Amino acid sequence: MQSTAGFQLRPYQQDAVQAVLQWFRASSDPALLSLPTGAGKSLVIAELARLARGRVLVLAHVQELVEQNHAKYAAYGLQADIFSAGLGLKQAERQVVFGSVQSVSRHLPRFDDERFTLLVIDECHRVSLEKDSAYQQVIQHLQQLNPQLKVLGLTATPYRLGQGFVYHRHLQQQAVRGDENCFFRACIYELPLRWMVRKGYLTTPLRMDMAMLAYDFSMLVPTASGYFSESEMDQVVQSSRVTPGIVADIQQRATSRHGVMIFCASVRHAEEVAGLLPSEQTALITGALPGKEREQILRAFKAQELKYLVNVSVLTTGFDAPHVDLIALLRPTESVSLYQQILGRGLRLSPDTAKADCLLLDYAGNPWDLWAPEISSPRPSRDSQLVQVNCPACGFANTFWGRTTTDGDVLEHFGRRCQGWLESDTGSGGQCDFRFRFRVCEACGGEADIAARVCPHCDATLVDADRKLKEALQLKDARVLRVSGMTLDATLNGRGLPRLKVTYHDEDGTELSDWYALETAAQRYAFEQVFLRDHLKAPGCGWHPASAEEAAAGIERLRHPDFVIARKVDRRHWRIQQRLFDYQGRFRKAEAAH
């Protein structure tokens, strides 16, 4: 695949282009390419724009990316317009237009043309599901003019804070990754960062956790938006006395380095850091810096007239300086996405400086694994880790948040449904039906997601847990136990037979019990169906206790329900009828359940 200007795309860039062509020949569903920073997304965009038969609009969120993508297309010897107020140009007449999303969304009448057949969105993880967002306004406008519009996103980090993956399924992995309502329907091609480094397309990252000389951001809690408050981050750094030591450490480690980028927690913090560095070698960039002054500083840094570039959240994307070989992180990052974007500034190859690696100095205790992406749900707790759980139905290797034993066995996971994507003989497909956790429809007996309101099998309304509790509380012969703990005992029943006794208790010591036999295969199967499948912390992981003693010894593997509802069978005995798990209703507090 040779360009008109003689550029030869790398093999993986050719594969990415072919994946796009193949997808859009068969579908108009929005699709996504996941390519690491430095993989040459601009060249892929340029090739696709060159091959397109209709008009093409390429959007980005910052003027640096608009300019960069336009420059790569111009290098093909082809002409294209730029529509960006920040670049002082608002042209939209040529076949291909490179624009900023803010400028285009404010001038949609300039794009009243049904001939637009391809919309390309760089850094597409920024596309929100909110219909009034700038990206969605442009998308809806062009789709109204051309319902067959092809929408392609490109990003190095295909996940969004608070949402997880921004696409529904992964074509290469045959897996479901994001929610059903994700705008991008599929990731059609992905290159892992580790592969790019191993193949020599990106430089090797060397991460050092500077635990002995670091700020303590551990008590910070993200705001409702999911981001840390700049004022709270500033309070942490200002109350600490380590900044001079950190800056001195950076300078020492940067002795043989060519380009140093320092990411700070606040403007005041950045000003302090810049003031401790050699003034003739240092520049400071914040969001308030005028555009022309910012461009002058970036040109000087790229020309290596400056060694230290200090900034506050403005150079995480769209900035290309291949000679950068040291990145100092003096702020916490809310997500692995931001963490990877920051490190990506230093992973490009730099033959001019013979860069062998990029040193990442983390002075903020960030917990993220550079090589591992976020997954569809937020990390439930600090001690959670990614665990692999094979689906008992289709064998797909799912990745969920969870916990393991010291031997590495999965002790708990928070997966609900298998992520495997199953292709049919006709070429269509769907997500594997196996559910690790579910609620049962009382109308048809089918399994539904624990948060579902309607049965996916018979469309019956699923009975609300609050309604079950309310009805039980109104019955004279019913008991509702708000469970605070559970015990398992291998014992003998009244007839001297070995049994497993399961006892649920509340904070006041009130108890309700169940008894199970595990002597025969049929009894063990019934135990798994009635008890284990709901109580296991790691359903589907193959733990099958063969005796009451083994079950009692494995109580660490079990969770207790939030509520137990029982009915009286005689003057002394109660029979448990329902157990409610994953409860989020209005009876969560103890006083509400009485």
In one word, what is the shape?
A: globular
The appropriate CATH architecture of the largest domain is: 3-Layer(aba) Sandwich
The CATH H-level superfamily of the largest domain is: P-loop containing nucleotide triphosphate hydrolases
Please work out how many helical segments DSSP would assign: 14
Helicity, as a percent range? 10-25%
Specify the CATH class of the largest domain.
Answer: Alpha Beta
How many runs of DSSP E, i.e. beta strands? 31
The computed structural class is: alpha/beta
Pfam families: Helicase_C, ResIII
Keywords: ATP-binding, Helicase, Hydrolase, Nucleotide-binding
GO molecular function: ATP binding; DNA binding; helicase activity; hydrolase activity
Organism: Marinospirillum alkaliphilum DSM 21637
SSE layout and pairing:
Blueprint lengths: L10 H16 L4 E4 L6 H11 L3 E6 L2 H12 L6 E4 L4 E2 L5 E5 H6 L9 E7 L11 H12 L4 E6 L3 E2 L3 E2 L1 E4 L4 E2 L7 E7 L2 H6 L5 E6 L20 H9 L4 H11 L5 E5 L3 H9 L6 E4 L5 H12 L5 E4 L12 E6 L6 H9 L12 E6 L22 E6 L6 E8 L5 E4 L7 E3 L5 E3 L7 E2 L6 E2 L16 H9 L4 E5 L2 E8 L5 E8 L5 E6 L4 H15 L12 H6 L9 E6 L5 E7 L14
Parallel strand pairs: 1-7, 1-12, 2-5, 2-6, 3-5, 6-7, 10-12, 13-18, 14-16, 14-17, 15-16, 17-18
Antiparallel strand pairs: 3-4, 8-9, 10-11, 19-20, 20-21, 22-23, 24-25, 26-30, 27-28, 28-29, 30-31
Helix pairs in contact: 1-2, 2-3
